[in-house]
């Protein structure tokens, strides 16, 4: 039994020998295509361009700078080597006078505004408001069925506040007197009384 007779094709064929040859040829072609196939992703190194490695413009600039430095060095060597580095420049402003006049104007306006604020008097009278409030509270006490006598408590609070303010003023005055005595000890010396002064 020969080899082509033992071959079993995938599809029905009239001649097994020819079918085996055709299948073998197609398989060899497939293997050749697989071996010679190129990858879809390019993994090779990129091309190197000459103008990227050799930058002529940069070299030209470097040569120009080197020539300038060489010229300066030769000039220094041929001469005494003095360098003109005296930079005594005065700071000048183009609008200094205008800014000064503007500052003076603003300060003058602020002073005038401060004087007006200090001289102005209030249009509201707090005493009259307080008296009206006491009057309304007394009216409420007279109208109410069970008066709470709030007017008396308000008057007591007002008197207490006045007395507290007076006490604070007296304390401040005593503190100021003590400070002045400490600052001027010559005033603390008791002077002898004359016999003509009445006790």
Structure description:
It holds the Pfam family Hmw_CFAP97. Belongs to the CFAP97 family. Residues 159-199 are annotated as: Disordered. Residues 164-182 have a biased composition (Basic and acidic residues). InterPro entries: CFAP97D1/2, Hmw/CFAP97. The protein has 199 residues and is an all-alpha fold. The chain has a domain at 148-183. Helix content is 64%, strand content 0%. It is built from seven helices and no strands. It has helices at residues 3-6, 16-35, 50-53, 56-78, 96-119, 126-143, 150-183. α6 runs antiparallel to α7. It is elongated and about 140 Å long. The relative contact order is 0.02.
What labels would you give this structure?
199 residues; mainly alpha; disordered C terminus
Average per-residue pLDDT, rounded, comes to 79
Please report the number of helical segments: 7
Order of helices and strands: HHHHHHH
Shape: elongated
Distance from first to last alpha carbon: 167 Å
Structure class: mainly alpha
The whole-angstrom Rg is 57 Å
The biggest sheet amounts to: none
Biased composition (Basic and acidic residues): 164-182
InterPro entries: CFAP97D1/2, Hmw/CFAP97
Region (Disordered): 159-199
Family: Belongs to the CFAP97 family.
């Amino acid at each position: 039994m020969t080899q082509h007779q033992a071959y079993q094709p995938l599809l029905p064929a009239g001649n097994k020998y020819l079918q085996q040859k055709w299948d073998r040829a197609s398989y060899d072609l497939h293997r050749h295509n697989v071996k010679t196939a190129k990858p879809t992703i390019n993994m090779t190194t990129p091309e190197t361009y000459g103008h990227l490695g050799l930058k002529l413009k940069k070299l030209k600039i470097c040569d120009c700078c080197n020539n300038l430095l060489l010229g300066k060095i030769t000039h220094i060597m041929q001469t005494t080597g003095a360098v003109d580095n005296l930079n005594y420049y005065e700071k000048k402003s183009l609008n200094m006078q205008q800014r000064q006049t503007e500052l003076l104007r603003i300060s003058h306006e602020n002073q005038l505004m401060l004087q007006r604020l200090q001289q102005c008097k209030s249009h509201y009278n707090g005493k009259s408001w307080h008296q009206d409030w006491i009057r309304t509270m007394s009216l409420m006490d007279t109208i109410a069925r069970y008066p709470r006598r709030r007017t008396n408590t308000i008057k007591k609070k007002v008197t207490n506040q006045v007395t507290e303010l007076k006490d604070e003023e007296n304390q401040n005055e005593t503190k100021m007197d003590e400070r002045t005595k400490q600052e001027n000890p010559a005033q603390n010396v008791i002077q002898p009384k004359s016999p003509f002064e009445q006790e």
